[in-house]
Design a protein that fits this description.
The protein is of the alpha+beta class and 356 residues long. Helices cover 35% and strands 16% of the residues. The protein has 2 domains: 143 residues, no CATH class; 152 residues, no CATH class. The chain is built from 14 helices and 13 strands.
Length: 356
């Protein structure tokens, strides 16, 4: 069995159990590198094809790896976990609003029902996540937060079924939503509220999200997920939805359609894929001078040719083309610079021309 780089030491977590709701699915012993699978049918997608000490440790580490997000270092301080992965897992149990997995250790103090009930209800902690300012409130340590498992660069909070972002960082989410709504694109619901942009969470206890980055592990590929799914007729509708996603992201000039910014929704009971996730995370859409390329991972690569994909697929989605011909942009225009608006109209004209 593969070995991880270092062994657990005194005071460290020696045994992790990956839980699906109240059911243990996998146990990992850090001291012996032993991995025991209890429920193969409920494993996370990223652990279904290859299970070893290395792959399990990577999954556990990636689950709570988001220190790069603005102000998250202050959340770590507020929860008194520092940058210690084991403390973070003990404190949060690795819960997420995207799925029903969590991580149990010897020090876990709650089960699934309690984790769900107290997940993301800490307003004081969410304020730290959005402002970077820590108070002396004892409320900061209460409940359980999915902030540790929520990815992205810009400050955000999770509360009441919504992701909150600062309007100054995320105002472009709203015009992107307005365009998607007019075009009949499946896009995450978005609204403005005071100094915040609110994006409605589209997962729940019955529907979970697996990101494209994890799907690539599941399908054991470096290729685009589209190129994998198109080989199987049972994914025909999902493939069609991916085409619409590409078209929409070209229209809004989004250079950030990387593998953690889209995925598939699946049935939380059967693990069957349902559909492509609603389009989301459009903070940097309407890029001035957009060349049609999007990065495909969290690095700096830009290799997904959205312009070529739009030209290739738009004729198969005549409803989008017809709606583009009569799209109303007066409200959208309020949130864009003159150049952004001009280039948006140019991309719309391109898509309409390509549809003929």
């Amino acid at each position: 069995m593969d070995k991880i780089p270092s062994k657990a030491s005194a005071g460290r977590v020696k045994r992790y159990t990956i839980m699906y709701e109240d059911k243990p699915v996998l146990e990992f012993d850090r001291e012996t590198d032993e991995v025991k699978v209890y429920d193969k049918e409920r494993l996370p997608f990223g652990l279904r094809k290859k299970i070893s000490a290395v792959t399990v440790f990577e999954w556990l580490s990636n689950r709570v790896d988001n220190l790069s997000r603005t102000y998250m270092n202050m959340v770590y301080i507020a929860r008194k976990v520092g940058r210690d992965r084991d403390k973070i897992i003990k404190d949060s149990s690795g819960i997420s609003f995207t799925d029903n997995f969590w991580i149990r250790t010897r020090d876990s103090v709650a089960g699934w029902s309690e984790l769900k009930r107290l997940r993301d209800d800490n307003i004081a902690l969410n304020n730290v996540a959005l402002t970077g300012k820590i108070t002396n409130s004892e409320e900061l340590l209460k409940g359980f937060t999915s902030l540790f498992t929520t990815k992205g660069y810009f400050p955000k909070a999770v509360f009441g079924g919504y992701i909150y972002k600062l309007k100054k960082d995320a105002i472009l989410e709203y015009p992107a939503y307005l365009i998607g709504k007019q075009l009949g694109i499946n896009v995450a619901e978005c609204e403005l509220e005071g100094e915040y942009v609110k994006i409605k969470i589209f997962t729940d206890n019955d529907t979970s999200l697996v990101h494209a980055s994890e799907l690539k592990v599941y399908f054991d590929t470096d290729d685009e997920i589209y190129n994998i799914l198109i080989r199987d007729e049972k994914y025909r509708e999902i493939v069609r939805q991916l085409q619409r996603m590409y078209i929409f992201n070209y229209i809004i000039g989004n250079p950030d359609l990387h593998d953690d910014n889209y995925g598939l929704l699946y049935d939380s009971r059967t693990f069957e894929f349902k559909c492509v996730s609603p389009c989301y995370d459009h903070n940097v859409a309407f890029q001035e001078g957009f060349l049609g390329l999007s990065r495909t991972n969290m690095g700096n690569s830009a290799s997904l040719p959205l312009d070529e994909l739009c030209e290739r697929f738009i004729a198969e989605h005549n409803d989008i083309a017809e709606k583009l011909k009569k799209i109303e942009l007066s409200e959208v225009k309020q949130y864009l610079s003159e150049r952004q608006y001009s280039e948006l109209k140019e991309r719309i004209e391109n898509a309409v021309r390509w549809s003929d």
